[in-house]
Q: What sequence folds into this?
């Protein structure tokens, strides 16, 4: 009896081990291609941009787009909600036959609170497409677009930026006063 339970236990452990080694990602529907880009090459904090998304069916089987999920690299939980990601449920599902495309665009604003500067080289916008047809393995077809941001710059306070302009203004004031005194003195000399 004990030998039977040991065999069953070893068999269960082997099945669980094989299941964990099997990749859980799956391919999108056949012929599914997702293209995405931003309208500019780089953004500064506070800039507004546009994300362009194109879904193309290059296969022979039709599939239907139900929703689109966009996750920006500055996604962050703020107080009581996630900011930097959204899901748009299409009011009418878009059926794509072979060779057809679906185009859409979304505007975004790069946050000014420092979330966009986590990586000075930019980040990746992740796009997930929900389809009505089950994908092989149940995975959501995804794609991505790169986004680059420039960091905010500032001029640190130094001698050249704070004292030098003040000294220049004082010297110009002194020169104007001296020129006025010379002009008044020349006027008195010519009257004699």
A:
């Amino acid at each position: 009896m004990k030998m039977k339970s040991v065999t069953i236990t070893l068999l269960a452990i082997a099945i669980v081990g094989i299941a964990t080694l099997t990749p859980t990602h799956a391919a999108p529907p056949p012929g599914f291609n997702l293209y995405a880009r931003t309208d500019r090459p780089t953004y500064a904090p506070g800039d507004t941009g546009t994300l362009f998304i194109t879904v193309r069916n290059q296969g022979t089987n039709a599939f239907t787009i139900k929703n689109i999920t966009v996750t920006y690299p500055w996604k962050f939980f703020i107080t009581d909600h996630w900011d930097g990601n959204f899901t748009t449920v299409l009011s009418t599902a878009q059926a794509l036959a072979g060779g057809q495309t679906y185009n859409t665009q979304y505007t975004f604003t790069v946050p000014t609170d420092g979330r966009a500067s986590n990586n000075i080289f930019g980040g990746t916008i992740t796009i997930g497409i929900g389809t009505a047809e089950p994908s092989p393995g149940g995975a959501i077809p995804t794609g991505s677009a790169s986004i680059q941001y420039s960091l905010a710059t500032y001029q640190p306070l130094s001698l050249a930026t704070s004292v030098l302009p003040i000294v220049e203004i004082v010297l110009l004031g002194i020169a104007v006063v001296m020129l006025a005194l010379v002009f008044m003195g020349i006027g008195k000399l010519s009257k004699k």
User: Anything to note?
Assistant: The longest helix spans residues 159-191. The chain has two domains: 27-147, 156-192. Residues 53 and 104 are 5 Å apart (CA to CA).
